[in-house]
Protein: Outer membrane biogenesis protein BamB
Amino acid sequence: MMRDGIACTWILLMFLAQTCVAEWPQILGSNRDGHAIGKKLDPWTSPPAVKWRVRCGAGYAGVAVAGGNVLLWHREDDKECLDCLSSDDGSRKWRAVFPAVYRGGVDPDLGPRCVPVIDGEQVYVYGAAGDLQAVGLANGKTIWSRPLRSQYEADEGYFGAGSTPLVIGDQLVVAVGGEPNAGLIALNKGNGETRWTALEQEAAYSSPVPITLKNKTYVAAVMRLKTVIVDPTDGTVLTEFEFGRRGPTVNAATPLVDGSNLFVTAAYGVGCRMLDLAGGKPTDRWGQTDVISSQYVTPVRCGQWLFAITGREDYGNGELLCARWADGKEGWRQPEFGTAHLIAVGDRVLAQKISGELKLFAADGSSYQELASATLPTGKYRALPAFSEGVLYCRRIITPSQNELIAIRP
Structure:
């Protein structure tokens, strides 16, 4: 028993060590919570300067940034391309190319959706068709490759594969949504071999996160119709609860963790749930359909306050909402704000609107206090932004097949 506890503590320490060193190495930053660690962003008094800009192909994948490298995952014609760019000037260091076989669904964009994952000397990318690649960070050479969705006969969903894999210890946990019993799978991150498979659940567009309960690290994953807590060592399900709705719906926001508390949200009449998992079984603390109902934007927590976009982009009813983390009580609401991705930077929140506006506001629960705003070059900005070393990386959609990555210094 003590040996198991030591092993789990070691896994957690290794995870924290990896995430604290890099700047924005994966989806939603170092800890998958939308926080730019150790950074401060002062209100700008003149339009933010464009540091550099690079044209690229299709896709909604945000970039990962670490060690002066910017990893850009996109599609050009019949190829999915992983470009390693210099954070200094955007020049390309190397390119890794893979066949692109995704033919599209509800959305005309055919590019990848998942943010690259930088882990030490390796980078992992998950393509729109569910093909997982591991490449060397130094040179872009392929280390291993797995066509997971075809191997496990997974449905491609409305928008292709869109759940960014999670590195935890020496494993890579992936929401595949396959059969039989392969909703979640774990791979040896070094060689790509399958360690375990678990769950009869379709994949969602939310990404799994680590959660520690009773000094043991688990994986929390929002699937198509359920949220599950699994043991990463063997895939055993600790607990699960209903979350989702049948029909033309998706679960896309990544869950937030605070100790034993887990927050999940979705649109389409699903709403949100705040649960306490301290006892191993989920206990609802609060949750309603009319408090926070996020279509795909992951909220950010700053102290006792939760900042979220509630509503749907396709309905044009996105609102910026502040609610108290402990009980969901509304602090304030900013109507007609629109859909925006949120990054917490110290005691401020940076919002990148899909429409191409930047807003900086105070992480204050008493009222909406806008500190600065700016307009980005014309286009749509659906990809997750990244914030590293004072630089904001935004991906602009020019046409369905052509994007542009813009590095901005607010």
Observations:
- The longest strand covers residues 391-399.
- The chain has a mean pLDDT of 93.
- The helical segments are 2-21, 148-151.
